[in-house]
Amino acid sequence: MAFVAAEDRFFFEKPPQNSTITQKVGSWYLPPGTGRLRRISLSFVIGEELTHDEVLNWYVNQIFLGQTCFGLPSAAMAYFGKPVEDLRLEEVAYLAALPKAPMLFHPVRSYDRAVERRNFALSEMLKGGFISEHEAESAIKTALVVIQPLERCEPEE
């Protein structure tokens, strides 16, 4: 739910085709410079054919997260050296915060900005009812610790 909170916390409360998440998924399959109307049209097609969970799964497994990583599983290994199921709340929140601008929120070169963006994702998770106030406060107080040096994801063949 961290990705929903960071990108569109009302994702599950509206038809999937009306979400920025669905629009982003659709934009990956259109040529650069494609107009807004065409992007919105494709999001309607996707939203009519896929459920919220299917769109979200597609998004989370394909989104660019920096370090040449596309998708949560590869980014979890590159940033934290562990599989998704072993990530802590603050780690998932950090990864969910990256799609906006991965280079801007680099955890080593821009640590303070990265923590600020992670904390934004945590506050959105709290506002959306995905986590408790205690969980949010605890995660916000936790330092952002990534593996050193950061790994790069291998391109898929």
Secondary structure blueprint with pairings:
Blueprint: H1 2-7, H2 20-27, H3 36-49, H4 52-62, H5 72-80, H6 89-97, H7 111-127, H8 133-141
Helix pairs in contact: 2-3, 2-4, 6-7, 7-8
Number of domains: 1
At the third CATH level, what is the topology name?
Penicillin binding protein transpeptidase fold
Reported CATH architecture: Orthogonal Bundle
Give the oligomeric state. Answer: single chain
CATH class membership? Mainly Alpha
- Helix-strand makeup class: mainly alpha
Question: N- to C-terminal separation?
Answer: 29 Å
Please estimate the helix content: 40-55%
Number of strands: 0
Instruction: Tally the helices.
Output: 8
Largest sheet: none
Structural features:
157 residues, mainly alpha, Penicillin binding protein transpeptidase fold, 53% helix
Report on this structure:
The protein is mainly alpha-helical and 157 residues long. It has a single domain (2-141), classed as Biosynthetic peptidoglycan transglycosylase-like (Penicillin binding protein transpeptidase fold). The chain has helices at 2-7, 20-27, 36-49, 52-62, 72-80, 89-97, 111-127, 133-141. The longest helix is centred in the C-terminal third of the chain and has 17 residues, at 111-127. The mean pLDDT is 93.
